[in-house]
Write the structure tokens for this entry.
Amino acid sequence: MLAEIAGDVDEALTAHGGTSAIEYKYDGARVQLHRDGDRVAIWSRRMSDVTASLPDIVAIARRDLTGTPFILDGEVVAFDRAGRPLPFQELMRRFRRVRGVEAAAKEMPLALYLFDCLMVDGRSRLDDPYATRWEALTRVTGSRWLAERAIITRAAEGEAMMARALAAGHEGLMAKDPRSPYEPGGRGKRWFKLKAAQSVDCVIVAADRGSGRRAAWLSNYHLAVRDEEGWAEVGKTFKGLTDREFTLMTERLRALATADDGYTVRVRPEVVVEVEYNEIQTSPTYPSGLALRFARIARIREDKAPGQATTLGELRGLHERQFRTKGRAGSGLTFRHSQPGQGDQTREGMSECKT
């Protein structure tokens, strides 16, 4: 089951009839955890079998979870020794590993956060309301390994929890309708994502020709920030514009074209766009060394000249500031972290796609 983006807590509360279940939105990888007797399988959101890469999560399923056969929905998150979540990019190095898995598990411990169940005791729970599924999940887990959660009726309650989630290094909140069934593959107002968007001003330096319904447009934009030597590319995006804006932008960029290899059109760096992103990652792809994760155009900045775009130095500063709440890889083998119902403890060696 997938989620739409909500602008604020009020929007979610209105859609949910005045009551929402809110959970931390973790900066991790979505997993589906299956168990039947001693048989355990873990699947990513892209339906890859990642069981062999996550022996620590397999151990939790066998040791701590009951109610088999079950299918549970959750997130795995990597932490440093201080209990701060590592960036998603670092988690992926562990998540995709096929060799040296045991050593990697000690170097990068994982935490499991479960937030839903599709089957418990061999019975489908898809048609049960969220509130009933949470009760079943609590029984299966013994109140351990659960996502941080609260039931709210006022926006202020959600905003306070959002502040706590962000301070802890997480992405934001999920808001769920307590009455809603579980709809595999569905995306709608039953589940919302609430995140604090961050943005920088970039310049479009090239565009790729689109495909499918975007075939008539230049619609995959190469984004760059200012550098001492000109422009440093930091990512691409085709998200954020309306069809009309795609059409107008295509005309505008063709008028600025300096080269065309049949697929990519290089353009004079004159169009400034405000770009929202989830995280700044290190990148071997771009000479800048950085890339904007989940970049999307928030608006075209007609009020700004290219010389007013974000600089590479500023972007590096933003990248470093992420680590005020996030951890860094290689910072230790263990971490201290509280699980609901467990208390503070030390654990050792404890979704290809995100929610």
In short: Residues 80 and 327 are 5 Å apart (CA to CA). The helical segments are 9-15, 55-64, 88-95, 101-107, 130-141, 155-167, 243-255, 312-321. The radius of gyration is 22 Å. The longest helix spans residues 155-167.
